[in-house]
Every structure is written in C-alpha cells, then in structure tokens.
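hey can u run this one w/ pyridoxal-5'-phosphate bound, need the structure tokens asap thx
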Amino acid sequence: MAESCYITFPTTYYAIRAESVLKTQPYSFKMIPVPRSISSSCGTAMRCHCEDLAAIREILLQNSLELEGFYRLEEIGLRVPEVEEIHFDQ
Amino acid sequence: MINDFEQAGNCNSNLYFDNAATSWPKPEAVYKAPEIQMRQGCGNPGRSGHTRTLEADRLVYRAREAVAGLFRVADPSRIIFALNATDALNIALKGCLGKGDHVLYTSMEHNSVLRPLGTLRRDGVITTTLIPCSETGFPDLDFLEEAYRADTRLLVINHASNVTGTIAPLQKMIQSAHRRGVMVLLDAAQTAGTIEIDTGALELDLLAFTGHKGLLGPTGTGGLYVKKGLNLKPLREGGTGSQSEIDLHPESMPERLEAGTLNNAGLAGLIEGLAFIEQTGIAAIREHEVEIRAYLYQQLQAISGIRLYGPADPGSASCIVSFTLDNTDCGEIGYILENNYGILCRTGLHCAPLAHKAIHTFPTGTVRLSPGYFTTRADIDYLTGALRDIAKLAAG
Ligand SMILES: Cc1ncc(COP(=O)(O)O)c(C=O)c1O
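ok here u go:
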C-alpha cells in the first residue's frame, strides 16, 4: 500500500523556511495543508517519501529549523488514514 | 522668477525634497508589485491550505529574508513586520520595558519614541533620563557615561535625526551601553536603505525600520529586528494561522509579535524596493546622497540670510539640510516654494520638538530639505535658485 511521510512545523515561518532550504536538495517533497488526522500547530506540512524522511530531517535541523512532528500515513484517498507518529532518538 | 502654477503640488514634479517624510519616486517595480500581488496572490498568509495561501506565505518569507539580508541578520525569524517605524518602536518599547526600568534617550528622538516613553513615564512604569545633544545634533557622550543607573535597562538612539540629518556615534554609544549590560534600541527610520547597518557587527538588540522612506517601499510597511534570546511581550494577540486550538498567542518568532493578516500587497512592493537597493548597492546610494547633500549645503551657505543646522560634513549626516531664513516664517517659505516653484519640502517641527530645542529652533522650526537617490544637481540648482529669489525678497 502507498504511504507518505509528513513533517509538521510550529509556525508557518518554519514551514516556508523548510521549503526554501530543501529547494536546492535532491529530494522530492510537497508543501500541503496538514491532513486532518494529524494535529499540528501550523496549517502547512511537508510531505515526502518515507525513505527520505531521516535525511530531510537532518538537513532541516542543520539549518536551525524548528520542527514539530513526523508522521507516516497510508495514502487511501478520502478515507481517514491510519497515522503512525515517528520518533527519532534525540 | 519661474511661476509655474501648473507644477504646484503636483506629484509629477521632480522637485520633491521631502524624502525624509516619505521617499519619491519609487522604483517602477514597487508600483507594480502590489497590484500583481492583489490580482494574482489573493491568499491569506498562514490561514488556509490552498496554493494561493502558500504563495502568500512565500512572499512574506521573501520579504523577511530581504530585510534580514539588508541588516545582515542571519536568522530571518528575528525580523517581524509592523505598520511602520512608529508601530515597531511601540512594540519594542512596550514589549521590553517593565515596572521600575530606567530608560536613556536622546534629544534627537522622534515623537514615535518620545510619546510611548512619555506614557510609560506618566503611568509610573518607567523613569527616564534625556541625553542632551549639541547644536549640531550630536549626543553628549560624557553626559551619557554619567547617566547610567543600576536599574537602567534601555538606551534608545535615533540613528540619524529627521531634523538635521546628524548621524549618532552608534558604535561608541552601543559599546557604552553594553558595558553596563544595557540594551540598545535603534530607530533606523531615517537610515534603513541609505546607510549601511550591520546588526551583527554592532551587536544591536532592537532595530526599528519603516518601509516607505529609504527602503523605497509602500506606506504601511515596516518592522522590527529583535536579537536572539530577547523575548518581547506582545502588544497584540490574535490570529496567526498556527496553534489555533490554544487560547494564548504563539511564543515562537516571528508569529510571537505578529497578529492578524499582514500587509501582503505592501510587502510585495517592499521586496522590490529592497531588490532595487541590493542591485544599486547601498554604498552607491550613500555616495550619491553624500555628494548631493554636500552640494546643497554649499549652495545654501552662499545665500545671505540663510542659517544652516546640522553638521557641515556630509559624511556625518543623512541626506537632510535644515535651514531658517532671517526674519521669515518657515511655513511661508514652504508655501512660496510650492506655489511659485512647484518645490515640495517640509517645514515646522517635524515631530521632533526636543531636537529643535537642541538646535535652538523651537518652537518655530526649520525648513527641511531632504533630497534622495533620484535627486540631481540640476534639481538642486533649481531649488537654490528659488531660495536665492526668496532671500532677496525677504531682505527687501
Ligand atoms: C527618526 C524617525 N523615527 C520614526 C519615524 C516614524 O516613521 P513612520 O511614520 O513610518 O512610523 C520617523 C518618520 O516619520 C522618523 O523620522
């Protein structure tokens, strides 16, 4: 089953800054409205391939970004998907 | 005498000497960008999820990055947008001062500093000490050294006087304050975009700027730089598009100090003003303004009856020359300049009463001429020609 990973941010400022930082990096991603099944402070999230999540997180942290949460979601259209929150050590 | 009534008060006139009030003309792109933004970028930043919103978010981010770039701020989240310098100064003063704080400020401060301080003082929140300035507008540094107290929290400095152009000795004043652990708030309303300000090198704590003067942007834009680690109490709380479920305003910068929908159309114009400054180079802008100010000063010096205020050295002043003409009313000179010559300038006290006391022109004020980057020597020649006529008339 197809799935995507999501990164959420404390504020819009960090969401847009993340987009600007990642633009020059070789990962595909998209800024999207936060899916309703995820709770987030800011309305915009970053969707990426789950295999890229750790690397993207690393780059964003190196650029002093404040990140809120990381999630894995099944892509099942309009139905509410299962959400798995991903925790990184440190 | 040229009696060109057609030109009077006409914004097509090139004879605009009121850039210290608001700059004109603006680069062409500054006029166009707000319209494009309103027609094509209708989203409310941070509020919805659709692509227009995202575009609006990107625009605000670009504006923040551009301002951060100009002031050499590494982290754009430390730049917040406000209505203008007045708004930013209010956010800074009311956000950082608390009960029992002592504040130092200079005679050259604008009412946008004097009045918030006046209210806080009247309400018994703060005490203040005024740092007097010389006849040419320079703060008395010896007085400053003696003025610190154990409860002194903030020193407010007007980077360049909007009356005389006098540039404050920033580095010395900041070092003096920091030696005592006192924070510094810089009012850069008159210098942002025309004089280099490196917040990092200066170790500034707070810097207020306005978008519609030297930054060549639209009115209704401006903001504040807040040094990392300095957490101001927000003056306003409300919608930010983030953390909507919580009934307290977010603490994270920049949202912490921004509530409500931002002036996107204005910021689109401001981005273009900043782009123009970057392309032209702030050094080139300053060089032109120093040359124009020197020329204006020298031409006015030769007119008998005219008294000049502020430093003679153009390197010590922004692009402003203030003068009075013996036995004449300043307002009358302004009126004749506009009606008989199509020349626009500002007369009176310029919202800075203490500055006029320092230079001994209170309460009648001065005629203030503030050319800008787009002013030519030919414009100055026309202006000084008009003033020669007026001086002759006044001498009878
Ligand atoms: C020194 C100084 N501070 C503050 C301001 C206020 O700027 P604004 O009217 O854009 O808020 C001005 C200009 O009016 C000024 O000259």
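The CA atoms of residues 290 and 314 of chain B lie 5 Å apart. anyway lmk if its weird
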